[in-house]
Specification:
- By secondary structure, the chain is mainly α.
- It has 2 domains: about 80 residues, Winged helix-like DNA-binding domain superfamily/Winged helix DNA-binding domain (Arc Repressor Mutant, subunit A, Orthogonal Bundle); about 45 residues.
- It is built from 7 helices and 3 strands.
- It is elongated, with a radius of gyration of 30 Å.
Length: about 150
Amino acid sequence: MADIFGVVADSTRREILRILLERYNQSNTAGGELSVSDIVDKLGLSQPTISKHLKVLREAGLVGVREAGQHRYYHLDYAPLEEIEDWLIPFLSVDFDATVEELAEESEGLKVEQRAFAAAIGKAFADTSYQMAHAVKDAKPRKWRKTD
């Protein structure tokens, strides 16, 4: 089975999932099902392209299919999306603003002289690096002879 994150990385597959979710939210009577031709009409892509993406989504377990003769009706399957949700929750619960404030408070603890010294060292390093890069670039190879 393909990595769920790789499957939903494709924008066309995300659009298919969005369309199936909209269908599910609009009407529970049809179980949120759409035919391949309905999805083709909504996205304006070719039927082979949509079928290829639906196959990937089906193999990942993100969509289910019901066959009725030659017609295929697809619906959203939420279970694999829980893996994405579980991965995202720790990131959504982090208070990034508080973390940035903590870092700012730590840096304020440095004395003015320490900051100036660190800035001077950084500037000296950058200047030296720049000069060395140009000296090496401008240097021409020389033929060295051994003198007897």
